[in-house]
Structures
1.
Amino acid sequence: MKTDSFFNRFFREFPGALFTLIGEDPRKAKRYKFTSIEVKEQAFRFDGLFLPKTKDDPIYFVETQFKKENDFYARLFGEIFLYLRQYRPLNNWRAVVLFPRETADPGVHQHFQEFFVSGRLQRLYLKRLPKKHLEKFPLSLFQIILDSEQNVASTVRKIVRQLPDQFPQADDLEKVVPMLVSLLMDKLPQLSLKEIKKMTEPLFSNIKKSRAYQEIAEEVEQELT
């Protein structure tokens, strides 16, 4: 399934999730601006770029890699150094890579050993995340990615039950529902519009009376058509 656009959107909406994943205080996200900057010479974009608001915090380059690519680390560090050359930031930097599981990781080449030993690069395997992370929104969305197709519906029901408590104001669901629907479209492309709507319908029942409902419904319609 395609995941690049999902993770870009995910970290844009929930930047604190990155710091939860790397074992730091999620409130630290307030000290950062999430962006997606193009490195012009090669016309590529990082999946996520966390730019600090002060000189004391490091830049975080975030990449997701869901298929094994033997030269992945060569490409990643090449892109990072092109960015550093082009934009000349004063801050130090770190890189975080998300793999679905260990089998997607091509392994450490001796050319890049120092980055791993120093901790400048941190690898995260979604399959090995603590259960407590995957049971709580928004990281529970990752469980949809990891699930087999037959288990997705059960995971979605759990997420749908969580959301009213975590987003008591109907307007707050505006950024959540389209993201969830878009993820389901990529995970289950064989499902019809009606079937996907049925999986997420309880969310709409909570927001139908809000002024934001019509806008959310229209965005979901666009995602699904």
2.
Amino acid sequence: ASLTVEQVDACVRLGEPWPDAPDEPAEPGQVLLVFDPTLAPGSSWTLEVTVTTDIEPARGSGNGRRTGTEPPRVAGEEAEAAHRAWYSSSTSITTPHVFADRAFRRALADLRLLVNSGPAFGERYIAAGVPWFSCLFGRDAIITALQVLPVRPQVAQEALTLLARLQATEMDDWRDAQPGKILHELRSGELAAAGEIPHTPYYGTVDATPLYLILLGAYQRWTNDRELVDRLWPNALAALAWIEQHGDADGDGFVEYIRRSERGLINQGWKDSADANRFRDGTLARAPLALIEVQAYVHRARLEMARLARLRGDLALADAQETAARQLAERIETHFWMDDAGTYAMALDADKRPVDAISSNAAHLLWCGTALPDRARRVAESLLGPGLWSGWGIRTLSSEMAGFNPIGYHLGSVWPHDNAIAAAGLLRYGFRDEAARVAAAMLEATMYFRDSRLPELFCGFDRSRSPYPVPYPVAASPQAWAAGSLFQLLGSLLGLEPDAAAGELVLQAPSLPDWLPEVRLENLRVGDAVVDLLVHRSDGSAGVEVLRRTGDLAVVVRL
């Protein structure tokens, strides 16, 4: 028999009896052990092999025998210490609801699992997902950072800094790059190194740039880290310039995209599969496309830039951005609203026609606060109506559309992060019961997936046809913004609205659904202050107790 051990700058300790010397030398990087026992009929022979490693290389060490009594270096100790540091510096969330508690713990562990170092020394980021997306994605990094701001604002600081360093500074059609644009994807494998793919990095995303500005504003609200805002202000202005120039190439007031790279993505919103954008009759929409959610992101990004500019004393920029945001919101209502469907079109196509399929995209308008209140109610009814609501969550595309496919990547599947954004939007407009239904569906879904882990997506079959959420065959799991969705759902239910500069944390109309009696948040950070909160269900709303407070922070509950 032979035993092969991969050897990476390590020595192999062998106990007695030593095996016979092999007839042929082992291949480079391997250790070949040969045993040749003689067995009598009916007898047996047992071999037990224990392999430990030392950091010293085994090269030139003869047969591998080592002397001395020093213990082997245990890398697991360092990993365990890193995990302890992660948890101790994150907000702890506990609840007596067994499944919710398990899901929150799994989500935080998955985020730690997805932390990658690089690309430069000292940098790190949360990879988008395993196994397909184990690298840096701009959109995913930003949305995940937004989701986990109440739990770990360091994620946002790291994402903002890294994405600013990699922000495009020149035109490059091969990589769909334009000055000021935030990257889509960074790869470092053989194809990227050989120039066969444009992911070095690739900039084919229309939404990462306005989302970057939203994250910068949200991060400042939670931390009041003025030093970082000041340092990244030139990057923020460059992103804003991209929105106003390259993003709106035809000058119609909307941000559109079209692929320029022959190896780039046809669709460049979060629904980026080639068949994602369709009319009601199933016809594919033709680019350039102005996606509805992107216009909402731009609206919110302009308002965040106006607020930050005012903090910095640039009143002219603040006024200009507030005016532009108001005008954009008016144009969205004029060009995207579909009164017959009670929702917004998912896009405008190359001919400025509304892409009239009923989809989850409109929920992002609610999240950004862009929709008119009376129309927001109709959008809420659409999201929870029979076409979009599967019973396990909101589908990406209504089952009433010709292009609906419950196992299509973006054609009727259910994405946890999309549902978390929808729930946040519903709560923003006061639709508590509807948001609670979405949150309950996501939590119930965790009970059917291994380790209580929400995957990237699952199939959009109706709950009446399936007693459990049907897995999408090749979903990434763990996946960053799927894990982060649980924290966004909770933060939305609690109505967390920080103002670190004012030393205030507002819980705006906090509510807990019937199935969640209480939640304890420990080590919640707002600016330099730290607070522990106990939120419990009380007479249809939620009561809040401050258990511990360090630093100057007012906790305000508005019912």
3.
Amino acid sequence: CKTLQEKLPGKVSLPGSPVYTSEESTYYSALLSEMKPACRVTPESAKDVSIAMNILTRNQCKFAVRSAGHMPWVGASNIDAPGVTFDMLKMNTVTVSDDRSVVRVGAGSRWGPFYDALDPHNLTVVGARSNTVGFGGYLLGG
């Protein structure tokens, strides 16, 4: 976690910090909220994810990726130390192209804001029933 903190200042939280505590308290499953990663990485861009992944893979660190925290399987959206959890919540943009043929969705997006972004364009898609479910977990089977 020290190397992650050096390379991603302000984007890594440690146990006991307000950000860490806030992020761990919002899981759908109580079992996952009880897991305690060594640190939590909150990337804001693909570059941040790349930097963190290079550090973790080079050091053979286990990790979990959280989109919104609804995935109930142990190790899917949270992990115990010495593992690291990625919380994608800040990568939550939804952009509709000018011709409305493409919608770009950030890995931390949730279905509610996504549907809200489509409404003004008179677009829809089949997706999660709950507005708080994340895109990442839903599309990967959560």
